[in-house]
User: What shape does this take?
Amino acid sequence: MSTKRKLAIHGGKPVRENYLQYGRQWLDEKDIQAVADVMRGDYLTTGPTIATFERETAKYVGARHAVAFANGTAALHGACFAAGIGEKDEVITSPLTFAASANCILYQGGTPVFADINVQTYNIEPHAVDALITEKTKAIIPVDFSGLPADIDAIKKIAQKYNLIVIEDAAHALGATYKGKKVGSLADMTMFSFHPVKHITTGEGGVITTNNEGYYHTLLQFRNHGIIKDANKLINNHGLWYYEMQSLGYNYRITDIQAALGISQLIKLSHFIKIRQDYAEYYNSAFRDIEEITCPAETLNLFSSRHLYIIRLNLEKLTAGRKEIFHALVKENIGVNVHYIPVYYHPYYQKLGYSKGLCPNAEKVYEEIITLPLFPAMSRQDLDDVICAVKKVVSHYCKKR
Ligand SMILES: *Cc1c(COP(=O)(O)O)cnc(C)c1O
Assistant: This one.
């Protein structure tokens, strides 16, 4: 039996009729209306809608400030700039993440240092971070992998001991909580992404949330070429037209069009997370008793926002490797994925001198993981199709048949 299937349509149209993607946006008429309203107004960019979106985002995560960027990667770049990361600085991050978590360090001329992960949570191990601290270490960029918060208390303890800055890559973790507190005000700066596969979308977009006044002003300036307009902060002043570029910034601005979409999406965020949570539980109960696969870790005190649902294959119980099983699931029209190729495996990083064997846990986990589709616009039928396909493929490659 093949699982021929149709994508459920709660909003928008499916891209392909029979192929289930691993993640996608949920847009409705209210979102479209919000965007149209801005397009009929005075400001397409750098208008009041951005400030409203920033206020709402900061309020949601419980941070004092939010600065929105053109995308999450630009936001991370801004955070590295605000943290003062430069040449000769080392910054510790996870190898099991999207390249952007480490690229932002390179943008500033710094050196990424990869700390190995915990084999259950897939987040960086605080003791591995501690072991990598040198005189050059400037910051730590933990990643809340799949929506499960990194051990931020332990990481902050290390940061305090060595006077380091913590930038949390929470691209997966909007709405997640750590010991009862929302991710977004725990680190010095926290980044969220609004790419369409993430919890809410602005098309492209990202944000840094922070409680630090200094970082806040630096981020605002960095996103707009390093330009200052506030008369109180100018070095010279030639008249009313005058502005000043006081540092090297970029054009990393988000538009009001995007911000309007973001505000509209934020209203639905807790509903989205509830569905993700519910769907993840549904997968868990379907897979719990299959000994060939391991479900995502359940952890005390941490509430995952369930960005990704990742199963791990127990390869010693299977007659095929991850590649065959992955390909077999694609044949069933299931849009599986792998998160992630260890960052330092990429040829660019290999050329920089990183070699395989650096983080054995991350490398082993990489060989065994498969991301299953999980997004709020999926239907129960979609979930059942995925479960059916996984069971079919696993039993086909199961050793004890
Ligand atoms: C999506 C993502 C980013 C980058 O966000 P963009 O908005 O796509 O630039 C960074 N880190 C992680 C872990 C991500 O998943």
User: Anything to note?
Assistant: Residues 6-16 have pLDDT under 50 and may be disordered. Residues 29-267 form a domain with the Aspartate Aminotransferase; domain 2 fold (CATH 3.40.640.10). The two ends are 18 Å apart (CA to CA).
